[in-house]
């Protein structure tokens, strides 16, 4: 027989799982990209969010992959392939700025709501913005706060623009930012980055041999 303490732990674990599943649904179906906002909105379905056991980002990521596998098995892979093709074009375009692919397009969870997210590197932001202007590409610029490690964060410029109907988001690092990636919001470990060659390998169709 389970003790009351074990029962409470089980109930909390079950509720946290249900919140993660609902947050994943909101991300997949409504395009919420902020995991914290998604979990708070999901928790509101079950009671006051500040009194509930909120799932970790990794739990939401796992639930998102499961949701895509169950409910978007046809559409999500097509969107992912399209976005990876757009990422290849974008990385070739930005080749002089040492581009690296990050985020959902790299991790395989990108969908119709996702942007292609890049890290680009230069010690001269004007060189990059002038490059976009010279190519007739209008963009929006904002600051983005990223955690560099457990004790440091930094505000970095981020440029957003469209390539056809695909949204691209390029966070601009100084050149020495190539040495260490910022912390991932999900794993809290250094963010996974991919070069163009790595992306080309990833985008190859699976062998039928």
Automatic annotation (TrEMBL):
Q: What is this protein called?
A: Uncharacterized protein
* Superkingdom to which the source organism belongs: Bacteria
């Amino acid at each position: 027989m389970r003790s009351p303490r074990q029962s409470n732990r089980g109930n909390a674990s079950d509720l946290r799982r249900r919140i993660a599943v609902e947050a994943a649904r909101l991300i997949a179906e409504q395009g919420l990209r902020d995991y914290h906002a998604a979990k708070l909105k999901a928790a509101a379905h079950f009671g006051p969010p500040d009194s509930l056991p909120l799932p970790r980002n990794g739990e939401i990521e796992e639930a998102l992959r499961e949701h895509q596998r169950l409910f978007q098995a046809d559409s999500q892979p097509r969107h992912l392939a399209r976005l990876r093709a757009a990422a290849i074009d974008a990385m070739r375009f930005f080749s002089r700025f040492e581009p690296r692919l990050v985020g959902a397009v790299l991790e395989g969870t990108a969908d119709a709501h996702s942007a292609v997210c890049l890290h680009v590197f230069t010690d001269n932001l004007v060189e990059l913005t002038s490059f976009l202007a010279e190519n007739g590409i209008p963009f929006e610029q904002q600051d983005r706060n990223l955690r560099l490690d457990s004790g440091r964060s930094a505000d970095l410029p981020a440029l957003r623009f469209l390539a056809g109907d695909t949204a691209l988001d390029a966070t601009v690092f100084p050149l020495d930012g190539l040495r260490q990636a910022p912390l991932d919001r999900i794993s809290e470990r250094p963010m996974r980055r991919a070069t163009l060659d790595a992306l080309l390998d990833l985008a190859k169709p699976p062998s039928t041999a």
